[in-house]
Predict the 3D structure of the following.
Amino acid sequence: MILVTGGAGFIGANFVLDWLAQSDEPVVNLDKLTYAGNLENLASLADDARHVFVKGDMGDKALVAGLLATHQPRAVINFAAESHVDRSIHGPEDFIQTNIVGTFGLLEAVKAHWMAMENGAKAAFRLLHVSTDEVYGSLGLGDAAFTETHRYEPNSPYSASKAASDHLVRAYHHTYGLPVLTTNCSNNYGPCHFPEKLIPLMIVNALAGKPLPVYGDGQQIRDWLYVKDHCSAIRRVLDAGKPGEVYNIGGWNEKPNIDIVHTVCALLDELRPKADAGSYSAQIAYVTDRPGHDRRYAIDASKIERDLGWKPAETFDTGIRKTVAWYLANPDWVANVQSGAYRAWTTRQYGGALGSQQEVAA
Ligand code: NAD
Ligand code: TYD
């Protein structure tokens, strides 16, 4: 049994689906179901007893303590977070509460449980904390990619709150011996990505005939990894990572934002041609830049490749094609997210009976 937090979000849901596709080890999924949590992502597990969904806050120590006591997981994987930089600029409070205070609550509950475990299970137990490359700050064009020892220089309220959570996780290892693993991954893309982030926003806006808003000059560089490769890296770190270590995860795939947008448009031109045969790229609109916008992120993935033998399965070309195809094949998912109907999914599915401490198989 493993316990994941934030497993109804983009990466967490992909992780749960992949986990149960490859193993019969059950998953307890603790998610607060914020606007970013969408149980429709997990609809294929509706009748699967291996998945136990619990609606609740990872910072609720009593709730987490109860789940740990009941289910005795061998590992906890922490995906839960507020994750959108633009939202953190407009309203940082939730980011402090969730990413810092929430992680602290989770650590306290996990530490108390771990300390009381019997020796064999205690030695095998792991807490894996999922973090981001954004904690390292921004690179210049000629700078070397981020290694695990790169100085922390977070620039947004989001990345600062994630950096704080990384430091707390580190401290619980050094101070209490808690067997933690931390992963810092580059930008993900793929199925079930909430359309407030660059790639899904461009796909859904293009299809809706809306402008494709590119911040500033569009030359900011991100390092893109297909979400299922992130999930395979997390599984590998959980299996073979050394407690107390940090692993950067990335696929050596840096691209300027404007190139990403043109690639998405070209794929849509091919897979869903416009009636007038024009290109979706005509919808590109340069807009005011994000305040404090980091110029470049790049992950040096040498350590996880060398020490754990992990490599991504997808290239950007194969991953982005799968991603665009997924959005074209799932118009209902897109429509429910855009209309907000996905938030009613829980009510439809569970008759509104989902309380903060109730468990349901989802
Ligand atoms: P997301 O915003 O799509 O999902 C976050 C999930 O956490 C949601 O289901 C939400 O309901 C849940 N949640 C929020 N607060 C909670 C709380 N207090 N208790 C329980 N659940 C809570 O995020 P994502 O893109 O899937 O990212 C997952 C993790 O990976 C985050 O920690 C993020 O920082 C990290 N990460 C993301 C990326 C990326 O490109 N998306 C890259 C690297 C790292
Ligand atoms: P985003 O998906 O928000 O991820 P992050 O900020 O965590 O890297 O944004 C990716 C890049 O795309 C980032 O440089 C900001 C830019 N961007 C746009 O140009 N337009 C948009 O509408 C969005 C959402 C992002």
